[in-house]
Write a structure and sequence with these properties.
Layout (H helix, E strand, L loop, with lengths): L1 H22 L1 E11 L9 E6 L6 E7 L8 E3 L5 E6 L6 E10 L4 E13 L1 E6 L5 E6 L4 E6 L11 E4 L15 E6 L5 E6 L4 E7 L8 E8 L6 E6 L5 E6 L4 E8 L2 E9 L10 E6 L5 E7 L4 E8 L6 E8 L5 E6 L5 E6 L4 E7 L6 E9 L3 E12 L1
Antiparallel strand pairs: 1-2, 1-28, 2-3, 4-5, 5-6, 6-7, 8-9, 9-10, 10-11, 12-13, 13-14, 14-15, 16-17, 17-18, 18-19, 20-21, 21-22, 22-23, 24-25, 25-26, 26-27
Length: 384
């Protein structure tokens, strides 16, 4: 009889422990905002907690006394944040690595390295999380970094500089590397040269000591297009380039390191004399593609559905960004919201995204922050 009572008590204690354990976990989504700071030390990176039910954001942290932290990239595991620093300056910029404190919603500096060139514009991390690629816009170069286990960066192990040009003399007088993307299988890196109208493909060899990028293979884009950013489809079969100077999106088939042209699509709603197309992303479920258009006469997000059989796009419509110069935007991890950073009007506009139709509905709340230029979002599971 006594043993039965003890057994029941132990069972009750076990159930209580399980319940307490369940209650000690919390899920939170953090939003990291990188900003231009007018080329002087200022409030460069902001962190917010984002509510994936209401679309509301609550301020958590500001990193002050940094200069032009204009592009951010989270590590795959979310433990580390990397930022370009001192972009658009007349000397070499830098790359900073930060530890993410997901419990308190803040970041702590780990270390800083020279970026290997002028005006770092974009960061990309490979699928293993051990290598970081940096694109230097002003002197047309790519630099590669090894990432240590603690998230810190080693000095750059490889810098490749390019000499090239194209037909728009005030924008394409020289090579301008604007971004890069590792291939779905992580064997290749594709770098987008706005100044030369080329996508430069490289073999990516993680076993190499110094020359991690090898055997350049050039993909020639249409003259005057200015390839800027790129995204692979989650299925690994398609790729999409956004061209800043022509305002067009190019769809590709992707097969074993090769990009095969499919079709061009106009991203802007209206024809213009000057185009400034900027960013491009695909929704988490892979059904819709979005792109940002930065004036001079139209600030909008273009919305396309994706044919999953052949990768072709079908225009759904355009949504104004309710601000000027939407340099960067992000889709939250739940896929229910799309956030747009309007650099020239100091606001981040929040849209609720219809997962079935892809359409966007503006919410009343927005985030006010000086010159936002880059957004990163991630959901964290926190043990309390």
């Amino acid at each position: 009889m006594q043993l039965n009572k003890i057994s029941k008590c132990l069972s009750l204690i076990l159930v209580l422990l399980i319940l307490v354990g369940c209650k000690s976990k919390k899920e939170t989504t953090l939003l990291f905002v990188g900003s231009f700071t007018d080329k002087k030390p200022g409030e460069g990176i902001h962190v917010y907690e984002f509510n994936t039910e209401t679309g509301e954001a609550s301020f958590k942290f500001t990193l002050d006394s940094v200069t032009n932290t204009s592009f951010l990239k989270l590590s795959k595991n979310g433990k580390y944040l990397y930022s370009v620093m001192e972009s658009q300056m007349p000397y070499h910029g830098k790359i900073g690595s930060f530890a993410v404190d997901s419990i308190n919603g803040k970041i702590d500096l780990i270390n800083i390295q020279d970026c290997g060139g002028l005006n770092p514009a974009h960061l990309e991390i490979d699928k293993t999380g051990r290598f970081l690629a940096n694109s230097n816009y002003s002197d047309g170069s790519l630099s590669m970094f090894r990432i240590n286990e603690n998230g810190s960066l080693n000095p750059h192990s490889q810098v490749i500089k390019f000499k090239d040009s194209s037909i728009i003399k005030n924008r394409q007088e020289a090579s301008h590397m604007h971004s890069s993307n590792f291939s779905p299988e992580n064997n290749f890196l594709f770098a987008h040269d706005l100044g030369a109208d080329k996508i430069r493909g490289f073999n990516f060899d993680i076993t190499a000591q110094d020359s991690i990028l090898q055997n350049e293979n050039q993909i020639i884009m249409k003259p005057g297009s200015g390839p800027r950013h790129f995204t692979f489809h989650p299925n690994g079969k398609f790729g999409y380039s956004i061209a800043e100077l022509s305002g067009k999106i190019t769809a590709f088939n992707y097969i074993d390191g090769q990009l095969e042209f499919v079709e061009d699509y106009q991203s802007y709603q209206k024809q213009q004399d000057i185009y400034r197309a900027a960013d491009i992303h695909i929704s988490p479920e892979g059904h819709f593609l979005y792109a940002s258009n930065r004036g001079p006469e139209e600030d909008s997000i273009s919305i396309f559905s994706i044919n999953l059989d052949d990768g072709r796009l079908n225009l759904i419509g355009h949504e104004p960004t309710y601000g000027n110069h939407p340099r960067n935007f992000a889709i939250d991890p739940s896929g229910k919201f799309l956030l747009v950073a309007n650099q020239f009007t100091d606001n981040i506009v929040i849209f609720r995204r219809n997962i079935k139709t892809g359409k966007l509905t503006k919410l009343s709340q927005e985030i006010i922050v000086d010159k936002p230029s880059s957004l990163q979002m991630r959901k964290y599971s926190i043990n309390l």
